[in-house]
Design brief:
The protein is mainly alpha-helical. It is 71% helix and 1% strand. The protein is built from twelve helices and two strands. The radius of gyration is 29 Å and the shape is globular. It starts with a helix and ends in a 20-residue tail after the last helix.
Amino acid sequence: MAPAEQDALAVREQLFHQRVRECIICALLFASLYILCHFIITHFKKHTDFAAVHDDEDAAVDRIALGLCTFTLAVALGAVLLLPFSIISNEVLLSFPQNYYIQWLNGSLVHGLWNLIFLFSNLSLVFLMPFAYFFTESEGFAGSKKGIMARVYETSVVLLLLTLLVLGMVWVASAIVSNDAASCQSLYDLWEYYLPYLYSCISLFGVLLLLLCTPFGLSTMFTVTGKLLVKPRLLEDLDEQLSCARLEEAAVSRRISSASCWLNLNVELLREQLFTIRSKRRKLELRHRASPWQRNLGYPLAMLGLLALTGISVLIVCFHVLELLLDDAAMPRGIQDASLGQVSFSIFGSFGAALQVILIFYLMVSSVVGFYSSPLFTRLLPERQDTPLTKIIGNCVCLLVLSSALPVFSRTLGITRFDLLGDFGRFNWLGNFYIVFLYNMGFAGLTTVCLVKRVSWAVQAELIRALGLHKLPLPVTRSWPLCKPC
């Protein structure tokens, strides 16, 4: 065999082994996420006893829908980890460029992960989750033989009609928006034009949802942290308050035990009062048992950490707004070749990259907290061992929309300089300067307002409590004139 042929064969073998290695790594990563999401869903899913005649059929439907929900949640978790994994991989390759044990970590693997997440996100949103919902609600066509296949036929027909309806709406919307008349006269370019356009609309909705939920979630996290941790109190005597609470509880308990038909006492009102005093006493005991380090150091450090992360996020977005006004290169764009290990995506090196990863996770957690804290979506909040399957499907869809929009959200706000890979950078609205600029301004404004209001109200309430002004009696105003004495 000629040397040239041997070299070509060696290159083909190397490419084959590289492709096999990438497939194995992707399969292992997704299998790990799938197992983790399975435990999460079974932790919240309501246990169902199938006691009907077709209990085996209902159990099979439940297992299939549960598997689809687990797959979707694994894709959502993968979308959350996608951008941090890419940033960390770039920094690792920069730090150890010639290390033999990390040669598998290359641009081809990262680019393949981005493409897989994009493909699975489309598949879950457009087909799997609607199929899971209609499959759990289906019973088969009237007159047909009962069984799993009857439900599959009914679900497939309903899903096909829904797909035609959605594609028709997308075609009409693209015909109104697009200036190219040739692309609006036929549906032959379904995969290359209409499905990316549909996912672009879904991604825009997810990014707008992140814009609304994240500032609200940032302010909510301050309240949640205050409830979970023991807050320090100024000018306060815990022993005195605890003894007073115990005396009040004992007094109300004696009144309830001595209540009889001869005494005009509202027992229900007294029990509610006892419950309130008992809750107050337990909180005081919890704070009294807390160590001085936990009481005086844990809460301030947690609040300062939240305040610092929120402030850094706002400063980065404000700096990105200035970049948008001065340089067109600051616009979010997509690239097709992931050249990892060439240059750091932060001016502060590895420290800046670590900060970007922390901010991405922080914003994602804040968006989830804000999503479930909003009055519109608070009913979707899952409960331990008491969440029906339809609510689990709704949660999986919402989390997938939020997580799949996270890379676009982070790149649009300038949280990271890592460009969007694959089809994530093909969204039409990413090239619109006015949308990107207004989005950055909206995030900075809403986050600043929520932060200032939350912090100022907390400081004001703490000062009023520390100075004892909350114990002052309210002024009494008369709404009628005094009568003259006769």
